[in-house]
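Input (dTDP-4-dehydrorhamnose reductase):
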Amino acid sequence: MRMRLMLLGGGNVLGQALIQQGAEEDIGFLAPKPPESGWDAASLTQLLDETRPDALINLAYYFDWFQAETVTPARFNEQQRAVERLAELCKHHEIMLIQPSSYRVFDGSRATAYSEKDDPAPLGLHGQAMRYLEQSVRATCPRHVLLRFGWLLDGTPEGLLGRFLSRAERDEALYLADDRRGNPTPIDDAARVILAVLKQLDCMTPLWGTYHYGGHEATTSLALGQAALSEARNFRSSLVEEITPQAHVARPDASEEPQHAVLACKKILHTFGIKPRAWRAGLPNLLDYYYRHV
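Output:
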């Protein structure tokens, strides 16, 4: 790798997965420790003025963007200002910016898979924040890659999957939508995709733009929960017996979460040669991580 790579968010699980996979191929990252209050416009300005990397991967707010149940508007506003400044700095210093985004930029009103050509129309605060971040990056930093991921899964106790597993051990009944669809995407797979994109950019190929990626085999949240529960029984016997199907509209997060969130991944395949991997193959590692850290 000829480029000097900077990773914001090297301490979170997706950042760690990216660092580990990079190390296996002798690809290193500058991964600065954030200030105690987190990255903001001032600290980012100082950082990039001093370091001047060739490419920057922004995973600084991974948990809030992809795993948190709720995030306050004030917190999103702070992050939006920081990303605005980051995009300005990347343009000024001619730094490539790799910015993750989410299926949540769509409202889920169509049953067919969303492509990069479809117009975003987010439902709730999460999706609105991600759309705003995308707009800031596009408008400010020409040399960017926006990666919209499907349902990102990690093994942290505080994450989406971890909260489900905790309820499976604690609650007498579990409910999941059987008419809500998406692409489960383990973080090891997401890290593989980011690394593959960086390798192509290292060849100085100007493949800027927006790309979709989600794990192979779109599924329902109910089927995903059943698969996770089946794998979890290898670690715990005291789990709820079964999951009760429930309509999407009856779910408490129906106003925030798109009912149809399947992403079409043809563009990233044709441009970068990145093939989707089966999400089921990533479940054992996720469950192993969870039960070692719970």
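The mean pLDDT is 96.
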